[in-house]
Amino acid sequence: MAVKVVQEWLNSCSGCEISIVDMGERLLDVLALVEFVHSPVLMDHKYFGQLGDGKHLEIPEAAVGIVSGGVRNEEHLEIIRLMRQKCQIIVALGTCATHGGIPALSNSYSNQETLERYYGTESTDRPEEFPNQGVPTLLDACSALDEQVKVDVYLPGCPPHPDHVFAALVALVEGKPLDLPGRSVCDHCPTVREGKGQVKQLRRFLQPPYQQSPDEPLDKMRCILEQGMLCMGPVTRAGCGGDGITPRCLTARVPCRGCYGPVKQDGNQRLDMLNALASNGIDVGSLPETVSMLRFAGAHRMLRPARKA
Amino acid sequence: MGQLINIQPVTRIEGHASIAIQLDDRGEVQDSRVHFMSLRGFEKFVEGKPAEELPRIVNRICGICPWQHHLASNKAVDRCFGVTPPPAGRKLRELMQAISHSEDKILHFYFLAAPDFVMGPDSDYGVRNVIGVAKAHPELARRVVRMRYATKMILEKFAGKAIHPHAGVVGGFSRVLLEEDRREFLGKMKEMLEFALFTIDFAKTQVFPKYLDAVASLGVINTGFIGTVDDHGALNLYDGKIRLMKPDGSFVDFDPQDYLDYLGEHVEPHSYGKFPYARCWNEGFSLDPLQPRGIYRANTLARINVADKMATPRAQAELEEFREKFGRPAQFTLLHHWARLIEEVYACEHAIELLEGPEITDPNVRAKVEPKAGRGVGCLEAPRGTLIHDYTTDSAGMVTKANMIVGTTHNLGPISLSVNQAARTLIQRGVVDETILNKIEMAVRAYDP
């Protein structure tokens, strides 16, 4: 019997859903094993009845609820709470769901500040009032799912690699435990590390890392951090390379920015990175700013509006 | 006060929206509203970040068109720092743009739109989806999935990451295209072109003819159009001047750096999403269905309308056939689907052109860069419309101000008008059923929001 699945997206970009589609032909195998009973992107099940005359939000019961995106407004909150009631297993799909993701950068600002800018840009005719009719009220911050409900399975990544989405769906269908890579991006990175380097200052990523030739394989290139550019690999959870293992940023010869979130679910990428840099004698004052170290993990109250003087 | 109908959420679209239709006591449509629900505030939270990091932050605006945000952002930062990418760096960006357009259009046509046309707008919602299509046409489904995957894997293999890319860098591109990869990608894009030609032929012979009545009636409105063209007036997805066309077909061309002189954004109390409008028409903004003001459309139909021609031969032949049938500008909303498939042919042909060009494998892909104070507007065509990123940096190259007009938002006004038109035409004397409500949503889906 097919496993019933509810899929929802909250404060999200739809990249996680496209990652599901990017499984290739494995997608067709998965579709044969699961039965989507609610999925706004794929099918036409509605919240308030198919005729739009219902009074209460309705989501069908299912074995598995897959949710991408963080929780940013009252509608998101209502949906995730109802899904928790209706689904046996809640899967947090993607770093927005597990740690807030990029949109949680807005946690550095109050809603008032965000609204003032968004409705006050140079191209915008500034309204007397911000929109407030039939749109869900914003919550004070963008939170990860587990700040609101219990989460059973964490599948981070921005987006999660299709190999892991596939592995997770198969494990859920077969009722087997899911084995995802732990440890850090560096543990899967083939570049050459020579131990403590001579680097005392960090440069911004304005020039390519040094390579002897354009086709030099990655396992001959010196570690980007040891070349003196910030790379979040040491404090970022592994897995972005999927079954191919090699971290995807490094494949393109650019440094990691932390999109799988902290190595441990409750880790703090900024704190851990600053500690790692300091213990290697690198002047953290050479960095232009450090909020970006939490660009994927600003939920869980990691980022907060500055206190007013 | 009559019945209130909520279509919530609007489904098989790529964003978050709902529709509210208010009927009067006689059961006729009194008013309709489309609520665009998402507000994330990128314009605020990119402030204070190093500008060169923005292409890797703002790509998260959209997981379906991350390449377009990534590349528009790179173009804006280049301009802030006063740097011009070397020819190969620029061409590699342009190649990524063409390939990502090609897979996006396949995704929308087969996964999101096709259920309405292949299964039928009045089919049960349980089968009116991609899974239903896959069961009804298993061989086609396998071919679609395989072709799209092959294209996506070019992006993945060469650029490291297909969704939320990072290979575009300020000053150019992070990777050099090796000859063996060039040959492999060229072969794949030639296959993709074959598939694009198959798809448009399949649509023209087996899908569109069944729906000509719907095309001529569903969601039909009269608006202006926006898109990007090159110096010869041909459609260009990566660079050029913006052409803003009035409903009567007359137009102005402008440099994207001057967009503030031509476009404005209006705010409605029922939508977080803002409503861009043609400020330069000096008629203001209005969603009054009888007398809309300032409304133009973006996306495939708009680009096909504003372009004098297509720069590649197969796409040009398709455009000529389309114009012969529907004129210029073509206004029927459902023609977005047809126009999308013409652009699909163009995107594949253009990717092949780039891969066959001499400069694409040049190892000089990235110019030297120094952060500095400046302002830059980065503009290109996202699948859903003209995309504008506008940044200002301080002397350290940190972002002090950012404004973005995102492809889909140009169409929020037109979508609202098309929904109103569809609802008024289809709902009479209070009779509402699932097919009617789905048809109203089809007017939205044409815009692929």
From TrEMBL, chain A:
<feature type="domain" description="NADH:ubiquinone oxidoreductase-like 20kDa subunit">
    <location>
        <begin position="13"/>
        <end position="172"/>
    </location>
</feature>
<dbReference type="InterPro" id="IPR006137">
    <property type="entry name" value="NADH_UbQ_OxRdtase-like_20kDa"/>
</dbReference>
<dbReference type="GO" id="GO:0051536">
    <property type="term" value="F:iron-sulfur cluster binding"/>
</dbReference>
<dbReference type="InterPro" id="IPR051349">
    <property type="entry name" value="Hydrogenase_assoc-protein"/>
</dbReference>
<dbReference type="Pfam" id="PF01058">
    <property type="entry name" value="Oxidored_q6"/>
</dbReference>
<keyword id="KW-0560">Oxidoreductase</keyword>
<keyword id="KW-0574">Periplasm</keyword>
<dbReference type="GO" id="GO:0016491">
    <property type="term" value="F:oxidoreductase activity"/>
</dbReference>
<dbReference type="InterPro" id="IPR037024">
    <property type="entry name" value="NiFe_Hase_small_N_sf"/>
</dbReference>
<protein>
    <submittedName>
        <fullName>F420-non-reducing hydrogenase subunit G</fullName>
    </submittedName>
</protein>
<dbReference type="GO" id="GO:0042597">
    <property type="term" value="C:periplasmic space"/>
</dbReference>
